[in-house]
Write a structure and sequence with these properties.
single chain; mainly alpha; 5-stranded parallel sheet; two-stranded antiparallel sheet; flat; disordered C terminus
């Protein structure tokens, strides 16, 4: 196969290509493009669209010329370098062919090599001189022969041009690699895709070939979040407010929870709470208060108390074990380090003890004796001045209990003294390095050895450069991914090992390292560093007051505390007269007003501290729309609104659309809890086609626009349903093996219609039915059976579906004098309207040639695919307006439309109460 394709491409040598290497690079690029996932998975999906057809098309002169046009600059550079290489190769080939090797020309060269080998192996001088003399005579003899002399000159030219040939070959290869990359990215790859699209025929975008659909496997993830108008609006409102309550309203599945989760940055202090339907306001506030305290304790780096084990022994163990672990970890490093340092500097310590130990001991005894004599003299009254000074010192210490200046002065003096003494102990060894004559001599020897100097400097430089501290990511080495940090750590270890080897190999380095005063220098430097660190040491600060307050609140909210005190009074054992008193105190759980006050107090303190650090405090309350009816949600909001209005706190509340609509009507003759609870509202609407395409492109890269429009129409632009229908598309493709839009959309739309009609049938089963109305259920059952059977007769399914959607023949539920209940009529009308929506989708997406028909429909205002999603949304408002919109869409797409003959009888209107709502 490779030989055949090579011959196909090499036919253009002299026409398009100037060299066979160019044809080989072009062939390689074409093969690489055919192996790319976005091309290889489309091969063979339609007749004639295979790899052989693409190879034949790309081997045509016109396509080869068209592919090289975007990379002409790099191609010309490659041709210049390749031409220079070919000229040198031709000269080398001519020299190799013209050289005439025989014993006259070969024997002197062999003798020359033998003489060099003898000299390099330190053979006796007589043998080396003899071999050199014989070699010189043989060369002179060879030069007297013209053919041998010519061969020698050609051989010299061949040897001299070999490095040049290697260099030119490397330059040509680099230029070829540059042209190959340019040709692939800008020439061959786009052309191969166009050729493949042409081979696939009309509407290649109707094939389903996503790069991957891993994004459909997860419902929520930060990496799949796209910008939206609701997110931008919420961000602007939060920036304009220092605090307040903002409601996020919208239909279910529109992304309210995702918006709440991703509007918080890492710099914010946030608490998320859900409001399930079984929560009472008191229980909800208990849960929110506990979450607030736990979140703040964790954010400050402290451990949240655990109340599952409440015995005194377990509490003591829980408090002691972390400290013991830290101590054990510290000792596991401190003891080995101390032992090694002590062993390495023991000789220096012993030398200091022998030189200065006796004088230091005598000075210590003398000073302690003088201090004891002074104390005795003061005690006996012999030194009145010292006694007065000591008494004044005691008074000064007592007065300093309220004045911290003295303690600060002492602390500053201690820090300054430790710093000066430590610095002195560190600087003295460094100064001694320059005054040591032995080190000076060894340093000169070290600088005189270039190999040692460059080796040591290189080790230090590599050790300094290979810092793994801030290194992240990986290096690609062929098929492997090597962590940068691990490689840099290995380099540092090798540098240390190399330093040890250098000390052993170079005497000057070994002499400087093993100088007899180095132990004393190291001891002095370590002592100075220890003094400096000890001067910087400060006791660990106690637990902050706000953390302690949160901890106390957790004990109060999650435990019931009781205390019992007993007092026994009695006389001696002989007379048993006495009394006993016992007192028990039990904590009382906080009531709701007290709980609200404590919550606001703690939250205000937290928000103030975060505000001073230029950080936001956010309380997000989600799932408020799950509290049953709108009246229950508003009642719950009325109860918990007492916790709103804390300074510097943003409250984000997820509510249903009705609550947001109630807030919008504030100021009108309509008031409820939203008027006094909310400061602003962000309406999260279903996404537009553009937003849905961004979501799908991020979750399933490579999915074509027709499938995006199909999924957007089915979901109505609701993000949750968008992901669900995207998953259904991939599931349909996997189960059926189909890749055409018409096949996948037909299967998906009919399956979704069957599931929806099944839900309507369950609702219809709860209605009261008479014998006269039984044909309604019978025709409904037959339609569902037809959809479930998966009949291959598409025209029959389409006819029955059209009859049901438009109420014709056996599906004329509202004619013939049938008396149906209002609720039954409403359900049938909604079911037929949804069937009309499915029929429209089936006519638009389930027929071949969607892209061409979409282009024609785009010239009409009602041909916008966005209107299909709006029709899906309108089904939740009114089946009448949805049908009207669907008829407009069908006209724009040139689909048959049955105009309404008159007003279709619908369910009777229900009387309304004073509030404008339907009366029960």
């Amino acid at each position: 196969m490779v030989g055949n394709t090579r011959s196909v491409y090499e036919r253009l040598v002299g026409v398009v290509w100037e060299d066979r290497t160019e044809a080989e690079i072009y062939r390689k690029v074409v093969e690489l493009c055919l192996e790319e996932p976005d091309i290889s998975r489309r091969l063979g999906k339609r007749p004639g669209a295979n790899a052989e057809a693409i190879r034949s098309a790309m081997a045509a002169e016109s396509n080869a010329t068209r592919a090289t046009e975007p990379s002409e600059e790099t191609l010309e550079q490659f041709r210049r370098r390749l031409s220079a290489l070919r000229r040198v190769e031709a000269g080398q080939e001519y020299r190799a062919q013209e050289m005439d090797w025989n014993w006259r020309s070969g024997f002197p060269i062999a003798l020359l090599f033998l003489s060099f080998l003898m000299w390099s192996q330190n053979r006796p001088d007589v043998a080396v001189y003899t071999a050199a003399t014989v070699t010189a005579l043989s060369i002179l003899l060879m030069l007297t022969n013209p053919p041998s002399r010519r061969t020698l000159m050609l051989a010299g030219g061949f040897v001299c041009h070999t490095p040049l040939q290697t260099f030119l070959a490397l330059r040509a290869r680099l230029a070829g690699n540059a042209w190959e990359a340019d040709l692939r990215a800008n020439g061959v790859q786009p052309l191969v895709k166009r050729v493949l699209d042409a081979l696939l025929g009309d509407d290649p975008d109707e094939l389903l070939f996503p790069d991957n659909y891993d994004g459909f496997r997860t419902t929520s993830s930060r990496q799949y979040v796209v910008d939206s108008a609701g997110a931008a609006q919420l961000a602007r409102k939060m920036e304009q407010m220092d605090g307040g309550t903002i409601a996020v309203c919208g239909p279910r599945g529109s992304g309210k929870t995702t918006l709440l989760e991703h509007c918080v940055t890492e710099n914010d202090f946030s608490v998320f709470a859900a409001a399930p339907a079984t929560f009472t306001p008191h229980d909800f506030l208990l849960s929110l208060f506990s979450a607030l305290c736990e979140r703040y304790i964790e954010s400050e780096g402290y451990r949240v108390p655990d109340f599952t084990r409440i015995t005194a022994t377990q509490r003591a163990v829980r408090r002691t074990v972390p400290g013991l672990k830290r101590l054990a970890t510290w000792l596991s490093y401190a003891l080995p380090a101390l032992l090694l340092i002590g062993l390495g500097t023991f000789a220096a310590v012993r030398s200091l003890e022998q030189q200065h130990g006796k004088s230091l001991t005598s000075q210590t005894h003398r000073l302690s004796g003088d201090a004891a004599d002074l104390v005795g003299a003061v005690w006996d009254g012999e030194n009145v001045g010292a006694g007065v000074a000591i008494a004044l010192l005691g008074v000064l210490i007592w007065r300093s209990r309220k004045n911290r200046n003295l303690l600060r002065t002492l602390r500053y003096g201690w820090d300054l003294g430790a710093f000066l003494l430590g610095t002195t102990l560190v600087v003295l060894p460094v100064v001694s390095l320059f005054r040591d004559p032995g080190l000076a001599r060894n340093w000169g020897r070290f600088l005189g050895d270039d190999v040692a100097t460059f080796s040591v400097v290189g080790c230090f430089f590599l050790y300094w450069v290979a810092d793994p501290g801030d290194s992240r990511g990986e290096w690609s080495v062929g098929p492997w991914e090597v962590p940068k940090k691990a490689v840099l750590r290995l380099v540092r270890i090798l540098c240390l090992a190399g330093g040890v080897l250098l000390c052993r190999h170079f005497p000057a380095v070994r002499a400087m390292v093993t100088d007899e005063d180095n132990q004393l220098r190291i001891l002095s430097a370590l002592t100075g560093i220890a003094l400096y660190k000890f001067g910087e040491w400060k006791p660990r600060p106690g637990e902050p007051q706000l953390v302690r307050q949160c901890r106390n609140q957790l004990y109060r909210l999650q435990t019931v505390q009781s205390t019992t005190s007993t007092l026994n009074l009695g006389t001696s054992q002989l007379v048993s007269v006495g009394s006993s008193h016992a007192t028990a105190v039990t904590s009382v759980p906080p009531n709701f007003p007290e709980l609200v006050a404590d919550f606001r107090d703690v939250l205000a303190s937290i928000a103030l501290s975060r505000s001073l650090q230029d950080k936001r405090t956010i309380i997000a309350i989600d799932e408020l729309d799950r509290l049953g009816s709108d009246a229950q949600a508003l009642a719950f909001l009325s109860e918990i609104k007492a916790i709103f209005g804390v300074a510097h706190v943003h409250y984000l509340v997820s509510v249903a659309e009705d609550v947001g609509a109630a807030f919008v009507r504030r100021g009108l003759p309509y008031r409820d809890a939203t008027d006094s609870s909310l400061d602003d509202v962000v309406h999260v609407q279903p996404g537009t086609l553009g937003q849905s395409m961004r979501i799908l492109q991020k979750r399933a890269p490579g999915i074509s626009p027709p499938y995006m429009k199909l999924v957007h129409a089915l979901s109505g632009g609701v993000p949750r349903d968008l992901v669900r229908y995207g998953r259904r598309v991939m599931e349909t493709e996997k189960n059926t093996g189909a890749v055409e839009l018409s096949e996948i959309s037909r299967k998906l739309i009919l399956d979704e219609l069957y599931e929806t009609l099944s839900g309507f049938r369950v609702l219809l089963s709860r209605q009261e039915w008479t014998a006269e109305a039984s044909p309604v259920l019978e025709s409904f059952r037959r339609l569902m059976a037809h959809l479930r059977s998966g009949s291959t007769d598409a025209s029959a399914i389409h006819r029955d579906l059209a009859d049901f959607a438009e109420g014709r023949r056996q599906f004329d539920f509202f004619g013939g004098g049938l008396q149906l209940e209002a609720a039954t009529s409403r359900l049938l009308l909604e079911a037929s309207s949804y069937a009309y929506f499915s029929l429209t989708l089936l006519d638009i997406f389930g027929t071949e040639g969607f892209s061409r028909r979409s282009a024609r429909a785009g010239s009409h205002p009602d041909g916008d695919p966005q209107l299909l999603a709006e029709a899906r949304q309108e089904l939740a408002v009114s089946p009448y307006t949805a049908r009207s919109l669907l008829r407009s869409v069908r006209r724009a797409w040139s689909l048959p439309v049955q105009e309404p003959a008159g007003r279709r009888p619908g369910p009777p209107r229900r009387p309304r109460n004073g509030s404008g709502r339907p009366a029960p």
